[in-house]
Write a sequence for this structure.
């Protein structure tokens, strides 16, 4: 039986302190453009539950909340410092944000209306 994919120690180490300084203005500015792309692609159709895989410090989740897009937002991130930075944003519609293994999504299939991966896939090892 094959082992499930795991994030390498090297990749985890790279992101261990990546978000330690908390939310950044640079990521906030980038999230503005990403928000516009998301809203344009969705044509502002209602999405009740949204998951961002690789949410970093929560910049996009915050922009979604500020624009009343999504009633329940969820975030997954391999970096504990990213999760803490996202929590510090106090996003009003954020249901949960948690550390995950980088490969196993801890939500049931079809439980989200929209899943976002923004600048994430190029960092995946497998």
């Amino acid at each position: 039986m094959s082992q499930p994919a795991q994030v390498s120690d090297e990749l985890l180490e790279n992101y261990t302190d990546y978000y330690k300084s908390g939310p950044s203005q640079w990521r906030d500015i980038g999230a503005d453009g990403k928000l516009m792309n998301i809203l344009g692609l969705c044509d502002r159709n209602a999405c009740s539950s949204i998951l961002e895989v690789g949410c970093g410090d929560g910049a996009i989740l915050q922009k979604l909340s500020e624009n009343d897009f999504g009633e329940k937002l969820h975030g997954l991130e391999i970096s504990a410092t990213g999760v803490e930075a996202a929590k510090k944003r106090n996003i009003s519609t954020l249901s949960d944000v948690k550390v995950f293994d980088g490969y196993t999504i801890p939500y049931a299939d079809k439980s989200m209306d929209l899943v976002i991966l923004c600048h994430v896939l190029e960092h995946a090892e497998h």
Notes: The beta strands are 49-53, 72-77, 94-99, 114-116. The helical segments are 9-16, 25-42, 59-66, 80-88. The mean pLDDT is 88.
